[in-house]
Design a protein that fits this description.
The structure is a single chain. The protein has about 425 residues and is α/β, with parallel strands linked by helices. About 60% of the residues lie in helices and about 10% in strands. It is built from 19 helices and 7 strands. The protein has a 5-stranded mixed beta sheet. Strand 2 and strand 3 form a beta hairpin. It is globular, with a radius of gyration of 28 Å. The chain starts with a strand and ends with a helix.
């Protein structure tokens, strides 16, 4: 008798349901979210035939948390079921659309009983790959937080200090650069900025880490901060300056977090055996490569072929056909993190790979928009990546983009 386990996850407790081949409930329990609850779950599974050679599969609506990590460490099949998919299955078991934790656990168990082949087990990634995933995703979140904090600060400065934005625009990194942040901390209002002397500006640049071209930059900033502009009332200006300092502290924290996590992610990624193959691709550096590895993992059995990986990344289009109607559209359901990394990868490869540039230009010549052409290029590149990782070979420009033969005069005639 085969047994299937469903776990309705919650923050402080979990409901367990075990069903057999016929969908009959054989056991149920509610466990706490701690080591004692985990042991109760393992004992319950052992009482119903779980062993080293016959692991009972588990379905749960999350892929994170200590419970999931411990279940994965026990070498059993763990299925992370999308909550939206589970809600559709729930309608099979009740016509009145009732809902309870126990019912949800039974629904998850029955999903494995009837449609396990339609769902994927969680990948068996190595410990290092999981560590890279945590650091790369955290760094990507920090970059998004930095962008949000910078946009809030920029919007606020537009209301009372537009001259500062004009002054720091030529600086590499703009508002996020160390020079711009240290300068704003030293002079958060137009009045204080106009009183900065050359000596003070020189000190600001040195505190920000500037080493070259200091005198020219001092001259430029000294003039830019004294350009006449519209002003708020003095007390209002001071109040808005205090608010800007508060927003600046948030931006400083986001910038520091992004930089520190980038170093940690790169260090962990470069220690992975797949790093050399991934970074052999044009447009993929260590940081972007870490983001790609974080999402695809190093479990080679996760994707049966390149088509599955392309669909997962959102690079492959979706074809919808019904009767005489046929439409091909961009894929909306995808791994958003991998898709974001893929855009950066494809865009950077335009200057690093002649074949990628020619492929992009052909797509543009066929009336593709910029985003569509980059997505098509990403589709091509990630297919090559799947091949290289499977075969353990490095990227080959001539194999990825074979040269097209020029049409002869006789053919043209």
């Amino acid at each position: 008798m085969r047994v299937f386990c469903g776990i309705d996850w919650a923050s402080d407790h979990h409901d367990i349901a075990l069903v057999d081949n016929d969908g009959k409930l054989v056991a149920r329990a509610r466990i706490s979210d701690d080591a004692t609850g985990l042991q109760q779950l393992l004992d319950l599974l052992a009482d119903h035939g779980d062993g080293p050679d016959t692991r009972i599969p588990v379905a749960i609506e999350t892929s994170r948390g200590l419970l999931v990590a411990c279940l994965r460490a026990s070498d059993r099949p763990v299925y992370a079921i999308n909550p939206m998919a589970a809600s559709r299955y729930r309608e099979r078991h009740t016509a009145v659309r009732k809902k309870s934790d126990h019912l949800d656990a039974m629904v998850l168990a029955n999903i494995l009983r009837t449609d396990a082949a339609a769902h994927r087990t969680m990948p068996a990634d190595s410990e290092l790959a999981q560590a890279v995933a945590i650091l790369a995703r955290a760094q990507q979140d920090a970059v998004w937080d930095r962008t949000q904090a910078g946009n809030k600060l920029r919007s606020h400065l537009h209301e009372y200090f537009p001259g500062y934005l004009d002054a720091v625009q030529p600086i590499l990194g703009g508002l996020n650069s160390p020079v711009a942040r240290v300068l704003l901390a030293a002079a958060p209002t137009p009045a204080r900025a106009a009183r900065l002397t050359r000596t003070q500006l020189r000190s600001v640049l040195k505190r920000a880490g500037r080493q070259r071209g200091i005198e020219d930059e001092v001259t430029r900033l000294h003039a830019a901060l004294r350009v006449p502009q519209m002003r708020q009332l003095p007390l209002v200006e001071d109040a808005m300056g205090r608010q800007a300092l508060t927003l600046l502290r948030k931006l400083d924290t986001a910038c520091i977090s992004a930089d520190e996590l980038a170093e940690a992610a790169v260090e962990a990624f470069e220690a992975h055996p797949d790093a050399e193959i991934i970074t052999s691709f044009p447009g993929l550096g260590s940081l972007t490569g870490a983001r790609v590895l974080a999402e695809i993992g190093d479990d080679r059995s996760r994707f049966a072929d390149a088509k599955g990986l392309k669909a997962y990344a959102g690079a492959a289009p979706v074809t919808r056909a019904s009767g005489k109607s046929l439409s091909v559209k961009a894929r909306r359901i995808k791994n958003q993190r991998l898709a974001a990394a893929g855009y950066l990868w494809a865009f950077a490869s335009l200057t690093a790979s002649p074949g990628a540039r020619a492929h992009y230009d052909r797509r543009r010549a066929d009336d593709d928009r910029h985003i569509s052409a980059l997505r098509n290029l990403f589709n091509r590149m990630i297919g090559c990546l799947h091949h290289c990782l499977t075969k353990r070979v490095h990227y080959d420009e001539t194999a990825a983009f074979p040269t097209r033969p020029e049409p002869s005069l006789a053919t043209a005639a």
